[in-house]
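In this supplementary section we document a worked example of the pipeline. Step one takes a protein sequence of length 416 as its only input; no multiple sequence alignment statistics are reported here. Step two produces a three-dimensional model, which step three serialises into C-alpha cells for compact storage. The input and output of this example are shown verbatim.
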Amino acid sequence: MIAPDDLRNMIYEIERCDLPEVKRNSETGTFELKANSSLLSNLSGNYGAFIVRSILHKLNINEHHVFKWRLENKFRQYQILNYYFPDCMPKTLSFSKLLNQPHGVWQIKELFANGFFLKATLGDASFSNKNWDKTAEFDSISKLHNEPNVEYESYMLQKKLDLQCEFRVHTFSKDIIPGLVYVMQGQIPSDKRTGVEKFVNEVLRKLPDVILQGTMIAWDIALTSEDRYFVIEANFTGFHPEYRAGFQTTGYVDDHHYGSIICAWLNNYFNQKFGVYIDAIDSSLLANYPFYEAFLFYRSILKNEHIDLIKNKTKDNPVSIIIYLGEDTNKLIISLIKHFLLVDFADKYYVIIKDEYFLKVSELFFQNHQLRVWSEHELFTQDQHQLVEQLNSDRRKQISCYHAVRRLKSTAYVII
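The serialised model returned by step three reads:
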C-alpha cells in the first residue's frame, strides 16, 4: 500500500517517536482523591472523568500525547488504523476530495445510493444521540464546505454495515480491561464476546506502541451479519484539542446507573496492574457528590480476585457468583448485579435474599436464565433457619453463603 504524502509523513513521525513504557509504581501509589484545581479545569466530563484523569495523572501519563497526530479525528483514525491493519474499518472516503472533484456532488450522491453515508469526523455520544448519519444534511453541508485544501476533514463518507450487534470495548496500552466489554445494541451469545476480544487484541497487536502506550481507548466495534468484526471508531482518553476542548474519556464512567461501579473497577485494574489506587476521597467531595460515596462502596467490594476470575473465565472454566443481598433495599448491590449481567461477568449468579423480599427481587430478574434467587430458608433446615434468623447481618451472610457454596458444583466462584 503506497500512502499519500501527508499520511507517509505522519507514519514516519509515529514510527520515529519514542515514549517510555508505563511501569508498575515501585513506591506506594495509593492516594486521596482531592478537588485538584488543575485536574478539574478543562475537564470535559463529570465525576467519573475526574477519577480517570486523577489516576492517569498519578501514572504521569501525558494526556496530550496521541493528539499530536489528531487521532480524535475519525478520518485521521481511519487513515492510521487502515495503514497498520488494512480493512479493519469500513471503507471510508475523504469528503473534501470527493466534493472538490468535477461533478463531486453527483459522485457523492451516487455513493449514498450505493450504501455510503455522511459522517462528522468530530463529535461524541453519536450512538446515544442517534445523530451519526448526516446524509440528510448533505445539501446544506456541501454548500458551506468550500475548503479546497483541508488538513483535517470535517466530514467523511463511510460504507454502511449490516450490523448484527455493536460492542464497546475498553483498553489501556495493550490490555483489554477485563469486565468492561459492553453490548451497545443487539443480543448475542457469549462466544461473540470472545470473538470481539480476539479481534481487538489483533488490532492492538498491529498498532505501534507509541500510540497505545499509556493510552486508554474506548473502541466501538461492529459485528456484521456475515460474522465479521470492524472498528467503527476509537474514542481516545486525553486532552482533546478541538471539539469540546479539554480532557475527555469514555462516557461510561459517568453513566447515571453504573458510572461509580465502572470507576471502582478501573481503580482496581490500575491497582493490580500498576500499583496506583484511590484509597480515600476528600470529605468535601464526599459531602457534595453521592457518586463518590457509591464509588467507595464498590471499591470496598471489588477485589483483585474478581479481575483474576473474569480474566480466566472460559467455556471450560465457568464462573459463578454468590451475592448476599439480604434486603431489597440495598440498591447499590442491585445495580452491581445488573452491571454484572450487562458485561457478562460470570456464567451463573445466585442471589440470596431474606424470605420477605423474595418475590420482589425475583420480579426484578424475571426470566433471566443466568440468575437464580434463593430465599434464605431454601438453604437450611427449619431448625437451622430459626437459629440463623437470630444472628447479626455479617454472621447471617457468612453462613448463608457457606451453605450456598455447598450446593454449587462450580469449581470457580466468588462471594459478594
